């Protein structure tokens, strides 16, 4: 019985592994093409292991060539890291305020914030664009950062966790004379750190991958993020597919690292966001 | 006696006053904590909604400056429903909806299998999650090369197995939308699978044990227990998936830019083109309001529907 069951399990594993390989084939192809001579990219049957490895020069061209990726990388890193930090701070503060401080308007304000969740980003791009042009945040990294910093989802997610912090902690800290700022920084924040880490990783991935905001809110080439650079690189290098694939690998790599490091957190965060709605 | 009550009222008055002060401090603290978020939401979301609503009734090309704004009433909306390009976009959005049931079904099957019937669960989660985590720009770029009409690996493979005239995929108006939809399904599976797996974890084990005792086989258990117990998850994914298809943009912008011949034009891409390429702010705003109403209606359906259709 046990053996039969295991056999079944093994069989399903093999089948799913095969499907999984088909699933990630585009990535394998991308990786392999990025190391190839241009002339070998499209040879058929596909040579998964390049005959001649010129990966080094491909990547060198992408990173330090005419449109050096390292500059765009710095832009992306700056925007993504600052957005993540600001967004986590703002969301954690709001989440604490809405869950652990009791003030009359609190429920209503939370309801208003939550209601804006329904507003599609795409529907308010135009007024945001006009506003940013008026106040000088258009074509500016800080404008992008601002756009990504007020996440209702983050507030909602973290609020769930702050609600799980026992009120006794907060009461006794109050009796000891601590104010809310101190309670937040020294008691509540450390207790929900894992949740904040989860949200931070998700925010990092979303911001890094964002294409729409940079496309609309950035004009100057020197400010481009990696996603815009990728797109520009493709239109300039049209036929140099091995270079384009090296660029694509470069654009995905940091995320992959981020994901491998925080895999459990990412998956738990997604699952939680999904189930709780 | 008299003095005692007086003292008591004094004390309670004092306590009340102190309570009032503490309550005020508490309110102030609460307000300070939520104010950055409130400020952000007000300036970045609420204000723009009002502005979008106003602008949707005007004609304004950004070049003319603020003075150039002209109130034209509902003209934009009239125009919208006679604009063949917009209607085509709307139709494409409707077709795009078909991706949702497809990836929901695949995700569910994968979730059930991975949850119970495989070794190395973690590995499979990562594999199927990869497309979702990767940037749409990079992934779409790779697919554009894979789908290359003559040299692309996809068509080379098809020709090698005897299909002499394979479709030209994103270069062919007939197949472009379907191609984009296929890629979209591929991207969406990871996310939906993970949410389904979380849903599976929350189904009580004793239901399956009871079914085992009654001699139910795998299929009966799946259709009588798993599927109904997952209905809230399915419903949630269905609604968010539908909303997502209304907002699809990145993949279209990178892969096809609405082409060829408008065959992959969708409402948000058209909105983008109208506003940021043709600079017709008023007309674009009316499209934005239309999009907003669509999302609102779907959210409303969710809110009403979850009570009726879903088993909790």
Automatic annotation (TrEMBL), chain A:
Record-annotated membrane-spanning stretches: 12-31, 72-96, 108-130, 142-162, 183-206, 240-262
Main location: membrane
Record has Transmembrane helix as a keyword: yes
Pfam families: BPD_transp_1
Topology relative to the membrane: Multi-pass membrane protein
A cellular component annotation (GO) from this entry: plasma membrane
Lineage: Bacteria, Bacillati, Bacillota, Bacilli, Bacillales
Family: Belongs to the binding-protein-dependent transport system permease family.
Descriptive protein name: Carbohydrate ABC transporter permease
Automatic annotation (TrEMBL), chain B:
Membrane topology: Multi-pass membrane protein
Transmembrane regions listed in the UniProt entry: 28-55, 94-114, 126-146, 175-198, 227-246, 252-272, 284-305
Biased amino acid composition, Basic residues: 12-21
Annotated ABC transmembrane type-1 domain residues: 89-302
Pfam families: BPD_transp_1
Residue numbers spanned by region Disordered: 1-21
Primary localisation category: membrane
Top-level lineage group: Bacteria
GO terms classed as biological process: transmembrane transport
Biased composition (Polar residues): 1-11
Keywords (A to Z) from UniProt: Cell membrane, Membrane, Transmembrane, Transmembrane helix, Transport
Entry GO terms, CC: plasma membrane
Cellular localisation: Cell membrane
PANTHER family according to UniProt: ABC TRANSPORTER PERMEASE PROTEIN, INNER MEMBRANE ABC TRANSPORTER PERMEASE PROTEIN YCJO
Recorded family membership: Belongs to the binding-protein-dependent transport system permease family.
Protein name: Sugar ABC transporter permease
């Amino acid at each position: 019985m046990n053996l039969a069951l295991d056999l079944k399990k093994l069989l399903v594993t093999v089948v799913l592994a095969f499907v999984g390989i088909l699933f990630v084939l585009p990535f394998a192809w991308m990786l392999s093409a990025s190391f190839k001579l241009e002339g070998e990219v499209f040879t058929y049957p596909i040579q998964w292991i390049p005959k001649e490895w010129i990966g080094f020069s491909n990547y060198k061209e992408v990173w330090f060539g005419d449109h050096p990726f390292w500059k765009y990388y710095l832009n992306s890193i700056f925007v993504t890291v600052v957005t993540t930090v600001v967004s986590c701070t703002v969301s954690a503060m709001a989440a604490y305020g809405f869950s652990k401080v009791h003030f009359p308007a609190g429920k209503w304000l939370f309801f208003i914030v939550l209601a804006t969740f329904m507003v599609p980003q795409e529907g308010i791009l135009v007024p945001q664009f006009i506003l940013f042009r008026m106040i000088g945040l258009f074509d500016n990294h800080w404008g992008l950062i601002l756009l990504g910093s007020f996440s209702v989802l983050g507030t909602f997610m973290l609020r769930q966790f702050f609600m799980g912090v026992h009120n006794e902690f907060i009461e006794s800290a109050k009796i000891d004379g601590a104010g809310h700022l101190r309670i937040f920084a020294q008691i509540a924040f450390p207790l929900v750190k894992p949740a904040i880490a989860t949200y931070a990783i998700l925010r990092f991935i979303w911001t890094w991958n964002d294409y729409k905001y940079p496309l609309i809110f950035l004009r100057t080439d020197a400010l481009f993020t990696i996603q815009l650079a990728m797109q520009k690189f493709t239109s300039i290098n049209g036929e140099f597919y091995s270079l384009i694939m090296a660029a694509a690998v470069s654009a995905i790599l940091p995320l992959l690292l981020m994901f491998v490091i925080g895999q459990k957190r990412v998956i738990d965060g997604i699952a939680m966001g999904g189930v709780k709605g | 006696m008299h003095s005692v009550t007086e003292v008591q009222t004094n004390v309670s008055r004092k306590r009340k006053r102190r309570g009032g002060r503490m309550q005020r401090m508490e309110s102030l603290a609460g307000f300070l904590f939520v104010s950055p978020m409130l400020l952000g939401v007000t300036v970045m979301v609420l204000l723009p909604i009002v502005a979008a609503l106003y602008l949707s009734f005007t004609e304004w090309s950004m070049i003319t400056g603020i003075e150039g704004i002209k109130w034209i009433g509902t003209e934009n909306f009239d125009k919208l429903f006679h604009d063949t390009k917009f209607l085509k976009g709307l139709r494409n959005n409707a077709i795009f909806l078909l991706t949702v049931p497809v990836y929901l079904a695949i995700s569910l099957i994968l979730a059930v299998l991975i949850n119970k019937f495989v070794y190395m669960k973690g590995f499979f989660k990562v594999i199927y999650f990869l497309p979702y985590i990767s940037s749409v720009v990079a992934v779409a770029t790779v697919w554009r090369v894979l789908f290359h009409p003559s040299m692309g690996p996809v068509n080379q493979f098809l020709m090698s197995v005897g299909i002499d005239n394979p479709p030209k995929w994103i270069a062919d108006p007939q197949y472009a939308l379907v191609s984009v939809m296929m890629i979209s399904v591929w991207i969406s599976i990871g996310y939906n699978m993970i949410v389904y797996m979380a849903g599976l974890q929350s189904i009580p084990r004793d239901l399956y044990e009871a079914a085992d005792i009654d001699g139910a086989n795998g299929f009966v258990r799946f259709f009588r227990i798993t599927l109904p117990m997952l209905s809230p998850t399915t419903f949630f994914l269905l609604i968010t998936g539908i909303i997502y298809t209304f907002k699809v943009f990145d993949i279209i912008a990178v892969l096809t830019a609405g082409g060829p011949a408008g065959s992959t034009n969708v409402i948000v891409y058209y909105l983008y083109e109208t506003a940021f390429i043709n600079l017709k702010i008023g007309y674009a705003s009316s499209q934005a309001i239309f999009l907003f109403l669509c999302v609102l209606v779907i959210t409303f359906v969710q809110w009403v529907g979850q009570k009726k259709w879903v088993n909790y």
